[in-house]
Amino acid sequence: MTGHTQEKWTFNELAGDDSRGMGYVNDGSEDIAHVGVMGYSTQQNLKLAHLIAAAPETAAERDRLKTLNEELLTLMAATDIQYRGCEYPSTCGEEWTCTPCRFRAAIAKAQPEKVPA
Ligand SMILES: [Zn+2]
User: How far is ligand 1, taken at its centre, from the CA of residue 117, in Å?
Assistant: First the structure.
């Protein structure tokens, strides 16, 4: 991910008993976001703050999974399994699903934009 520091983001709760879990997310060099909703409980605000502070790790994991997905799709496309006919035409998908059908379903799920309507 670009556009932010490579430092770990941290959440710093405001001081005082009435902070109610509100505070600032810091990107390692400066505060980048105020976090907290007046009507939220302390627990809700802290949950929100930690989700926002985890954004760089979440984005890095998303990017890692996108890359892995592309690699797996490339490997799957290199086999001929997806082009084979169904191995159990009368029962496939009921008790179990055959490998060619599982390949086609996995590819369709990973690339919904490429499945013909
Ligand atoms: Zn099948």
Answer: 20
